[in-house]
Design a protein that fits this description.
The chain is mostly beta strands and 132 residues long. The strands form three sheets. Strands 1, 2, 3, 4, 7 and 8 form a six-stranded antiparallel β-sheet that branches. A two-stranded antiparallel sheet has the order 5-10. Strands 6-9 form a two-stranded antiparallel ribbon.
């Protein structure tokens, strides 16, 4: 599986070390689904239409040492899909806003095709972010 943190996020960390203000989240982190995977540069094709919306995601406190990681601590449920479905989801990403905004982390996943009345779910603990 491919995964990474985006150039946007890495640049924000480096600028923070130069004394600039680190961009704060607007209340929550959000998870989005992709039909074409992004890369560290961003891009990809996020699901649109058919009842889709990014969903808030929460994480437990970071733990471990080299690497340090944190896992999602609640199920994330996406809306039931309306006619047309989401298509085949190949990746997910963590964003700083519910729409628009910046992609922070991304990861590919097992391809899953969602159709009418399916509900995408990311189980608690299934999304883990790791820093070396």
């Amino acid at each position: 599986m491919a995964a990474g943190k985006t150039t946007y996020f890495s640049t924000a960390v480096l600028n923070w070390l130069r004394g600039t203000t680190f961009p704060a989240l607007a209340g929550s982190a959000y998870v989005g689904l992709f039909t074409v995977a992004p890369s560290d540069a961003g891009g990809g094709t996020e699901v649109t239409g058919n009842g889709y919306a990014r969903q808030a995601i929460t994480f437990a406190a970071p733990s471990g040492a080299t690497p340090t990681s944190m896992a999602s601590n609640a199920d994330v449920l996406f809306p039931l899909q309306t006619p047309g479905g989401y298509g085949t989801v190949v990746a997910f990403g963590i964003f700083d806003l519910v729409s628009g905004g910046n992609l922070i982390y991304w990861n590919t996943c097992t391809n899953v095709t969602y159709a009418l009345n399916d509900q995408a779910k990311l189980a608690s603990g299934s999304v883990t972010l790791t820093e070396d």
